[in-house]
């Protein structure tokens, strides 16, 4: 009887570990659902919007200018941030705030991206902490799930003029 109970317990433990590994791989490599907070991506993403983030793009280096990404915060590694990719390595980017009279520019170093929130006046982004290493990117947001009246693919940046083409 004890042998039967131990057998069931070990089988249950084995299935739990297997399904836990499958779930981990799915969330780490395929994607997941993310609840966004804060005003930095308004009007594209509002506070408490729910989005789907796919993680394959970062593994295959398919992140492009204009994509919205989930990134480990350079200021606080325990938290994630949601920002738009403005520049990739080698791109010339405007590093000044919109209200600055004199505009300053810089080049994004190798292995880094330049990130900015769509709400330029209320966003802590690369203009504050500089270029972000590509390795901190967790995923690319591709779909807004909630609220239902705004369900679908995300719209283009309201700050398209900040994308510089040389």
Automatic annotation (TrEMBL):
Cellular component per GO, a single term: mitochondrial inner membrane peptidase complex
NCBIfam families in the cross-refs: sigpep_I_bact
The keyword Mitochondrion appears for this protein: yes
InterPro entries cross-referenced by the UniProt entry: LexA/Signal_pep-like_sf (IPR036286), Mito_IMP1_subunit (IPR052064), Pept_S26A_signal_pept_1 (IPR000223), Peptidase_S26 (IPR019533)
Keywords tagged on the record: Hydrolase, Membrane, Mitochondrion, Mitochondrion inner membrane, Protease
Entry's localization field: Mitochondrion inner membrane
Gene Ontology MF, one: serine-type endopeptidase activity
GO annotation terms (biological process): protein processing involved in protein targeting to mitochondrion; signal peptide processing
Enzyme class of the recorded protein, top EC level: hydrolase
Superkingdom of source: Eukaryota
rRNA-binding is among the record's keywords: no
EC number: 3.4.21.-
Active site location: 40, 83
Protein's UniProt name: Mitochondrial inner membrane protease subunit
